[in-house]
Amino acid sequence: MKWIGRRQSDNVDDRRGMSGGGKTLIGGGILGIVILLLNAFGGENGQMIGNILQQTQGQQGAPTEERALTPEEVKEGEFVKTLLADNEDVWTKIFAENNLKFEAPKLVLFSGQVQTACGGASSASGPFYCPGDRIIYMDMTFFEELRTKFGAEGGDFAVAYVLAHEYGHHIQTLLGTSAKMRQAQEGKSEAEANKLSVALELQADFYAGLWTHYNEKQNAMLEPGDIEEALSAANAVGDDAIQKKMQGQVVPDSFTHGTSEQRMYWFNRGFKTGDIRKGDTFSELD
């Protein structure tokens, strides 16, 4: 995608290379892969990440020295700041068009582990949004995992899709959708509650597509293959694809994020329609 030379957001807190110290959260090996698979695109489920990880904390680790970022990491940071600025610009415009007040979230880039209002998390959690502090958290190593372990194409627009999806969860917080979903889950069976979670995640995919539509109109940022990269990432993190990879069978009642087909469909719907009113995933799911 064409991103160099565009505005960069000031709402990024880059903690990569900072000293960790304290307890080391387990994120490697089989446990790390399981958590990464189950919590990819964490959304509202990001609140549970900390609880899982805190129960499996490793032994006390020695503090590590701070280090300078590599040229590649500096470029990654500039890219993420540009993506965040693009999201800010698009959603400011959409909210203004609908007479709504917009408040931009912050984004934290981290390496290894991070403390949030939703608890402690490691890079194995994948990118996630914490509604408790209204911050998006990203460890860029996730995208290599997405490509090598999950079979996604990779590429810069895969990163753009992931960030736009997490930004979509912030939009749901601002609009009250997330709170209404949690309230609707009360008293429901696990299968019924999971269905509502799927609707929330698919709407975030729709918002990612909607952002792509608006940003393309404003910045003409798409290059050949960009949409395919986004769809490849959406396909890789479908519940059915993850379950088949993890356990060799698919259990639809346990889905919390949607199938690969659903995730690709709702991203495409947002991208092609450019109409926020077309994103009512809750009324369109069986």
Short description:
By secondary structure, the protein is α/β, with parallel strands linked by helices. It has one domain (12-19, 30-37, 69-278). It has 11 helices and 8 strands.
User: How is the largest sheet built, in terms of strand order?
Assistant: 1-4-8-7
Q: How much of the residues is beta strand, in percent?
A: 5-15%
> What is the helical fraction, as a range of percent?
40-55%
Major sheet description: 4 strands, mixed
Please count the beta strands (DSSP E, at least 2 residues each).
8
List the uncertain runs.
20-63
**Structural classification:** alpha/beta
Instruction: Label the overall shape.
Output: globular
The figure for the number of domains is: 1
Distance between the termini: 36 Å
| Number of helical stretches of at least 4 residues | 11
User: What is the string of helix and strand elements?
Assistant: EEHHEHEEEEEHHHHHHHH
Average of the residue pLDDT scores: 79
Radius of gyration: 18 Å
